[in-house]
Amino acid sequence: MLRPMRRALVVVSLCLAGCRPGSTAGPAPATTGSIGGVVLDKLSAEPVQAVLTAHDQQSFALDSARTDPAGAYRIDGLPPGTYDLVVELPGTSLQLTGIPVRAGAVTAFDIPVESGEVEVPSRPFLAVATDAITRFTPPDADPARGRLEGTVTDSVTFERVTGAVITATSPALDQPLSEVSDDGGRFRFGALPPGTYALSAFYQVARRGQIEVRRTAITVDGGTLVVVPMYVELSGTQ
Question: Which domains does the chain have, with CATH numbers?
Fold first, then answer.
């Protein structure tokens, strides 16, 4: 009568040993990164269809992606390193060099191109990913109103920042306008009266408080789209 009871106790003991807390492995850390953004026409800001190929400068491995109907692209699964990017357009191509890729991060930047260009010299990535304000004249723009758009980006990693609060102020406005950057770090203010504007981007960082970056004296004219990059330094602050 004792032997069956002993066997039952052994089974229970083995089950408890196999179900010990902490035995389940957590998610593995990311080992690859990405490059992403939008390809757009320099004059109209219309999306441009293109094929983009990233070349690893060390291993010469390559990965490609096509833009979607909105001109957006993203090349995933890239081992960390420094890349060159070839952008193939109808009738021509251009090359951007020295693009950094980090594991678990998306190096994000938009690529303005000029339709009809035949020969485009190679350009360093940092010549494109700058804080320069760009003005476009969309064909469907309201001549009496302007648009103000942009991106919020980490100045160290070039990752786009989601959830930043952007406020636009101007003597042309009755009250300030606010937007929150989306999953691509983008914000948009439409149908603005012409005038001079200021933008502030706020972002909350744990154990550091609120970070703010401002851009002032932004001229918005009727019939124009003004694109304003906003760079904040978030790396190493959390």
Answer: 33-128 (2.60.40.1120), 134-232 (2.60.40.10)
DSSP β-ladder status, 123-124 and 92-101: parallel
Report the alpha-carbon distance of residue 185 to residue 173 in Å, rounded. 24
* Helix/strand/coil for 111: strand
- State the amino acid at position 12 in one-letter form: V
* Residue pLDDT, tens place only, 147-156: 999 999 999 8
Q: Which of 164, 144, 179 is nearest to 213 (CA)?
A: 164
Q: CA–CA separation, 3 vs 88, rounded Å?
A: 77
pTM of the model: 0.81
SS3 labels along 52-94: EEEEECCCCCEEEEECCCCCEEEEEEECCEEEEEEEEECCEEE
d(C-alpha 89, C-alpha 219), whole Å? 32
Structure-block tokens of residue 181? 């950057």
Which residues, in sequence order, are CB contacts of 146 under 8 Å at separation 6+?
192, 193, 194, 220, 221, 222, 223, 224, 225, 226
